[in-house]
Amino acid sequence: MQVSVAAYAVGRGTPDAAAPLYFASNCTNLVGGWAYGAWRHDGSPRRHQAAAAACLALASLPLTFLDAPLAVGATLALTGLAVPVLLILTSVLTESSVPRAVLTQAFTWGNSASAAGIAGAAAVAGRVVDAGGAHGGFGVVVGAAVAMTVLALGGLRDSSAAEDERP
User: Class assignment of domain 2-165?
Assistant: First the structure.
């Protein structure tokens, strides 16, 4: 997302506009994390993860064609709501699925995988932005969010099958 936001601002000839765009997204990150933490959760964390990933994919889609800075900022703010929810749910699911004796190791692996994914996505987005501009970079965001949704739905299906097999 950061590569694409910077490319969008620079492409418009207003590189300083990247800061308020980041600000819009980061403020809603705080609100999204706070609101999800305050909410009384019904349903499984896997379902919440699939829903949050789908919301991120849908909210990111307009970034592939929007040009007006206010519309891009509003859309970035909307996407910012889903990110902390996904981070929280990743921690919840990790904690609930590994033995306590290896919990620190599991969190380390998860954080390392996340960092590698971010670095890889930034490299891909940079190449796409160089070839086709910021909208193409935002397309990488959408693609990653769709992949996350598919994986979350697969995990949901797998967890349902495992629950059916329990005595």
Answer: mainly alpha
